[in-house]
Structure formats: structure tokens, C-alpha cells
Amino acid sequence: MNTPATANESNIVSINVGGRIFQTTKQTLTLAGTDSPLSKLATESSTRFLDRDPALFSVLLYILRTGNLPARSTSFSVRDLIEESRHYGIEPFLIDSLSNPSQFEAFDLRKSRVLRLNGRDSPSTIAPTVNAGGGLHVAHGSKITSFDWSLRRKSTVLTNFSAVDSLLEISPGVLAAGATDFPGLQIIDLEKGGSVRTALNWEDVATSTVQGVGSSSEFLFASFESSRRNSNSVMVYDLSTLLPVLELDRGSDSSAIPSTKLRWIGSCNLLMVSGSHASPSGVSGHVRFWDVRSRNMVCEINEREDCFADVTVSENLSAVFKVGVSSGEVFYTDLRGLGGGKEGDRWVCLGEERKRSLNERKGVGCKIESYGDHVFCSKGDGIELWSEVITGLVGNARRDVLEERVFRKNSFVAGSGENKVTGLVFGGSRMFVTRKDQQAVEVWQSSSRGVSM
């Protein structure tokens, strides 16, 4: 006597892939989309047989189920996974799993690949792609070379600049590019061979040059300096229309220092702008925090003693980090304490703060960036990794009350004898590194999570 199938049993689908039987649910298969052959299998009642590689199919099925790469994916090449994912119509799922920041494991980073560039110019600046995480745009000389998420397809366009100093992807295939010796911020369309859609200028100074760029989900930020270098400003544009919205951080005398780094802090709805200048008396600079909607400056940190060589902000760690140009040490200040306290007391040294001479320049050229729950700082040819040590409190309770925080340093690539690090950028599950006089970009990934490149 035949018994009727239960609802749970009728939802189970068995698929023969290259002689190996897989079982999954109709819901999992339909996640692939209506155009995928996998979703069509969910509606078929006949024998489901696919003459494909079962090992690769198991990886892709795991991605459909969880959104992540399985540990066994390390034994496969990315080329094979790309081809197989395209056959099943689920390449976007593979892209998400490979570029998902959750796959980024700071303590397990290994150099997985070197991206070679055409020509003799070293990278001047690099920018990650906005949506298909893990892709990259590299400015070298007058050219911009773009790599897709797989890092296997690349294209190069020629710009009007002799060298690009500021670069940012504002939407897929559309870049904002500027230079310190060429007027205007150019909006470049890569899909149209690098043609310039428009050029943005400081409204009353048509010959102003670009010192830095940044963006939020709503706005594009550009720092301009006049050609005579006696005034500067940060312009805010609507990201969708590229029309000017307002002006911030205007300096109108020869001593005003232009901001060269612009970072949006989404959790606080603040724009952080920073800039520094070297003179015979030393290095001085500023870090300012602007409320864009009210046009008010919330806080300003004036840097004089051991001014920053570079500065960054981490929303995950609720802190601003700098590397001192004199000491070469890493410092932090808590975002929640920006409004109070003496200016000199704001910074807390993470390393062994020693008495230093203002004539020292141990931090010159050092770069500092944050990603996830970690802070990365380049020192010569090496990179330091700083992570917070949680003590006494559980979860996010440590963010509720200002207290002394403990950070631990881990170094890698130190003393490798390679050229000095000139740039650090993060995208998806990858860290990208550029070095002095090298016509290439290093790709660093987790050895336990990534696939063979």
C-alpha cells in the first residue's frame, strides 16, 4: 500500500550530478533565480541528472544554502568556480561569498597574488569597487587600470591627468578622479572608454585643484585648493545628480591647510576631514568633524606636537587612529570623547610612548587604515595589525562608558626586505598593498577562506 508523501518529503529534491547524489530543498534551488537551471529542477518530476563536476557543484550548493564559501573551497581554482557558477546562473552568489567582508580574517592574511601593471609608473592611488567587492581601480601615471572581482579581467583607460592623486568609485563603473596639479574633479565613465561625463569645480574658483575625495550614501565630498594656494574648501555634492549642495571647511588665508583625507562616519552622521603641512618649525595639521546637515563643526583637533603622518577612523571600534610623524607610534582617541577634554590629552598611545624630539621623523610615509575590528599601520616595508583586547565586559557594553582601552599589536611582513609600503586599501575579503617603485599591487587574503587565484 502506497503512503502519501508528507509535506516535508515532497519538498526534498534529489539531484544526480556526475554520478553523485545530492539532496536539497526546493526553496534552496529557487534562490538561484527563475533563469537558473537549478530553479527549474525544483519543478521537474522526472529524473534530475546533471552532467557536471560534482565537487564543484557541492561548493556552489553550499554557497546557495549559507551565502559563504565552505572551507574545502581552498582546493579549487577561482577560474573553475567562475565557469561553473556561470553555467548555473549564480555568479552573483559566488561574487558575494568571495567578497563578503565576513570572510576577511585579519590574523590569517597571506599574499595570494600580485597584479602587474602596464608601463613604468608605480601606483599613485588605489580605490576598491563599490558593489562587487574585491575589485580594484589603480591609478598609475596618466592611466587607470581596473580589475573585476575575480582579478582576472582588467581594462585600462587614459586620463587627462599627468598623475592621478585622488580616486574613488562613486557607482559601478563611474569614478571620481582628481589631481593636485590639474583643475577640477573629473567624473569618468569606464563603460564608455574613460570618457569624462562632467568636471566638478569649486564654485567660485574654476582653476582649483583636488586635494582629496570621499563619499557617503547620499553625498560626494571633494576638497579643493585654489591655484594660488591661498584658499581651500570642501564641497558637498548630491551623489545622484552631482549638483552642489553646500560648502564646508573653508580656509581663506595662506596659512590655511587644505584637507587631504575625507572620511564619512555613518554611525555619527559626521564627516571627518584632515590635513597637515610641513614647515621649518615642524609639522602641523587638523582633524575636524562636520555635521553636514547643520553645517556645524562638532569638534576640531589641532595637531602640533607629533602631528599625524596619517589618520583614519573606525566605526566598529568607535575611535580615531593616527600614526605620529615624529614618533612613528600609533595613537587613538575615542569618538565619544571628542567634545571634551584638553586637546593634548585626547590622544592615547598604543605603543611604548617615549620622550621624542620634534626633529625626529620616524613616522614619515606611514599609512594607517581601519577595516572591520582592526587597524593596519604600515611601517617601512612591514605592516602592524592592531586589535582591541576585550577585558571585563561582554559584547558591546564597553562602548557605553569611556574607559581605558587595551589594544594588542601583531606584525607581519616586517623585515621582509621589500620596498616601502605606500598604500593600503581594503575591499570585500581582501587587502591591497602598493610599494615604492613597484609597478604592481599585492593582493592579501585569508589562506583558510580564499580560493586559489
What brief labels describe this structure?
single chain, mainly beta, four-stranded antiparallel sheet, 6 helices
Low-pLDDT segments, ≥5 res: 394-401
Total helices: the number is: 6
Shape: globular
Assess the beta-strand content as a share of residues.
Answer: 35-45%
Rg of Cα set? 25 Å
Description:
With 453 residues, this protein is mainly beta. It is built from six helices and 31 strands. Among the domains are: 15-99, 2-Layer Sandwich (Potassium Channel Kv1.1, Chain A), CATH 3.30.710; 105-117 and 305-453. The strands form eight sheets. A four-stranded antiparallel sheet has the order 4-31-30-29, with no helix packed on it. The radius of gyration is 25 Å and the shape is globular. The protein starts with 6 loop residues before the first helix and ends in a 7-residue tail after the last strand. Mean pLDDT is 87; it is low at 394-401.
